[in-house]
């Protein structure tokens, strides 16, 4: 099947500048009460309204349907900026970009326009119930339609968004044996949001379990079919690339907050040759180390973000080699952003001192967020992906993780 790409070329300087400014404004709003909202552990309904009002939810949708007409580089930078203030909301936005972009990657060409128009007109936020290590959804043929049954854990954005993208195995009918993506409105009969997300971090990512009990699904609700087409499967390096930007953003936020706290500290350690902590050579050494590491990760992220746009623009001309090359590039970013991000968020306390461990300061939020989300899939397997490629030119089998 020939698929055009709704994304062409790469982001201009003016486009990036625009979306950076929008994201920075939203991040500033989120930063005001990020810790308070984290502790309430509620679905981010008001936060998603802020994303809708800013235009960020429509950034990637084609301009021909009323969307922002932006590129992946702009979207990923926006996710990174939000992560500096609130990685939970950034995660929901990142998953929304990935979920809704299945319209362009996986939907049949004759229905893409309709899906995009409805999504843009409603400013929909797309949540998901796709978790590939929890394959428990079955879509059973029932008359002219289907019934969806099963339980999905780790359903990011599902309970707070407008629609849920669900991956299910079809039993019976003309689609028997296919794994399909169905798009269901939030309040569809038979969908129950269990509200059981109670993790160490990413507490506002609306990532609880969803139970589907005899949910009616029409043929028109089916967006597309899971296949091994290289273009359709750019979705996986896309979400992994979003993770890399989230981890970088969290680390940048941790360092910025650490610098703010350190500059406000009076005096210095009694053995220090300096009068203030900000002038202490050991403090400056740690800051220099962190800042340099993050500059390197940022350069790699910017390069990889733009490279992803270049591959996406190929559409149906995307080859397995094209996909493989960006998969490896993204895996490299995932490795370094995970390790540097955790390192910075963990060791930031070395420059801020014992007073910064007070609960009211909330500096732990950065570490809790990145520590939680970086367990999504083991980073050691990303190292293996890179190593197998470098040594043997071997790519991992296409999956929703590789």
Structural descriptors:
Butyryl-CoA Dehydrogenase, subunit A, domain 3, Butyryl-CoA Dehydrogenase, subunit A, domain 2, alpha+beta, 8-stranded mixed beta sheet, 13 helices, Butyryl-Coa Dehydrogenase, subunit A, domain 1, globular, 402 residues
Describe this structure in words.
By secondary structure, the chain is α+β, with helices and mostly antiparallel strands. It has 3 domains: 13-125, Acyl-CoA dehydrogenase/oxidase, N-terminal domain (Butyryl-Coa Dehydrogenase, subunit A, domain 1), CATH 1.10.540.10; 128-225, Butyryl-CoA Dehydrogenase, subunit A, domain 2 (Beta Barrel), CATH 2.40.110.10; 232-392, Butyryl-CoA Dehydrogenase, subunit A, domain 3, CATH 1.20.140. The protein has helices spanning 13-31, 34-40, 45-54, 72-85, 87-100, 102-105, 109-122, 235-264, 281-312, 320-347, 349-352, 364-373, 379-392; strands at residues 126-129, 138-142, 145-152, 163-171, 179-185, 191-193, 210-217, 222-225. Strands 1, 2, 3, 4, 5, 6, 7 and 8 form an 8-stranded mixed beta sheet that branches. Strand 4 and strand 5 form a beta hairpin. Helix 1 packs antiparallel against helix 3 (45-54) and helix 4 runs parallel beside helix 8. The longest helix has 32 residues, at 281-312.
